[in-house]
Amino acid sequence: MTSHGCAGKAVHLLKEHLPGEIITVNIETSEIPDLTSFQRIIIGGSIRIGSIQKRIRKFCEKNMEALLARQTGLFICCMFEGETALEQLKKNFPEALWKHAASLGLFGGELEFSKLNAFERMLVQQVANISVDVSKFSTEAVRRFAGEMSRSEE
Known about the structure:
Blueprint: H1 6-17, E1 40-46, H2 54-62, H3 64-68, E2 71-77, H4 82-92, H5 95-100, E3 103-106, E4 110-111, H6 118-128, E5 134-135, H7 139-153
Parallel strand pairs: 1-2, 2-3
Antiparallel strand pairs: 4-5
Helix pairs in contact: 1-7
């Protein structure tokens, strides 16, 4: 699920770097398939104002048993880096799930200032002092995550 495109970009890159058939589901617009038919499940989204999308959080809570029974990877797209980004991931996914995950992806983020509405632009200018497009998205982090997911499947 993505509002401004960064998580969608990450999903596209993951599809290119993961072996086998990959099925992507946008939980905002698609029906969720039966999770028991999958060996590996990757869940990700973007962090906006400190939180991941509510539907992702609810999906994880509702399907915890099935997720813990499979190889699971989690990723976020956010403007923070390092420990701060990791704390954002841990805050936005249930503890049992991130402790179980085969890989945790911190892919960076993109802020397309030009695509924000007037309120969002004002907020970003005040809070982050940003008034131009900024990209901290890491293609290398996506590749590394895909490699970890592939190795742990073997």
